[in-house]
Specification:
3 domains; 6 strands; transmembrane helix; membrane; transmembrane
Length: 244
């Protein structure tokens, strides 16, 4: 150890965690190992002290502020928020995605989910403060394991639902009328009088909401004329015409 080496025994646990994040390991390998060993020692001493004081449970560390998080952590949090919020419009717009789109997206979904999962575990390795915050509670420990599956779910919803709807909105489209098969669907919170539109050779499954009187006037299944706008990415349903 050189004379200018910091006295890590005087550092707090939080300060040692910062040292391990920002220290240049190639330039100061001995200091890095010393700080890492001291952090493990202080954590062990804290646990022993807690047990000696009657097995008191320390409160979990506070969640790191946005400004305290590493860039990789903020990027992951931002990407999850973008994908989550992008799903909301699909609940209110009745959109049938074109099968020509969904037929070519499975590989993209898996690649995106894989990249996000790898980045997630890299984030946990680099951002020690965030990792300690997650490890302190069972919810955080569950998030460590399940987050990749959450990224897979949101990747699928973003690629196969949100993205084609957004592209449909901004690109050229034409008004169409199609006679389609339907079935009465179960009630949902955002659509109590629901009709399920059966998928066609060109379009995926869809649904639309109607009034209780219109729904009651229809048989359990049959055909209706669906009105909407069509593009290469799918069909946005504007309404329907009851059979005579």
């Amino acid at each position: 150890m050189d004379d200018d080496s910091p006295d890590y025994s005087q550092y707090t646990i939080a300060e040692l965690e910062d040292v391990l994040v920002w220290i240049d390991q190639e330039k100061w390998p001995e200091r890095y190992l010393e700080a890492k060993a001291m952090l493990a020692k202080k954590i062990k001493e804290r646990a022993a002290k807690t047990n000696s004081e009657g097995d008191q449970v320390l409160p979990p560390p506070p969640k790191p502020k946005w400004s305290e998080q590493l860039l990789i952590t903020r990027i992951l949090s931002g990407s999850l928020m973008v994908m989550a919020f992008s799903v909301i419009p699909t609940l209110f717009y009745k959109f049938m995605v074109a099968k020509s789109w969904t037929a070519n997206t499975m590989g993209v979904i898996w690649v995106l989910a894989f990249i996000l999962a790898i980045t997630w575990y890299l984030c946990l390795k680099k951002d020690t403060k965030f990792m300690r915050y997650l490890e302190a509670t069972w919810r955080g420990q569950l998030a460590i394991v399940t987050m990749p599956f959450l990224y897979l779910m949101f990747s699928w919803m973003f690629i196969d639902k949100s993205l084609p709807l957004a592209l449909h909105m901004v690109l050229a489209k034409q008004e169409v009328r199609y006679e389609m098969d339907y079935e009465k669907g179960s009630r949902r919170k955002y659509c109590s009088q629901r009709l399920e539109i059966i998928e066609t050779d060109e379009l995926e499954y869809g649904e639309l909401c109607t009034t209780e009187s219109n729904r009651n006037s229809l048989p359990e299944s049959g055909k209706i004329t669906v009105v909407g706008t069509r593009s290469q990415f799918g069909m946005l349903i504007d309404g329907f015409i009851l059979p005579r």
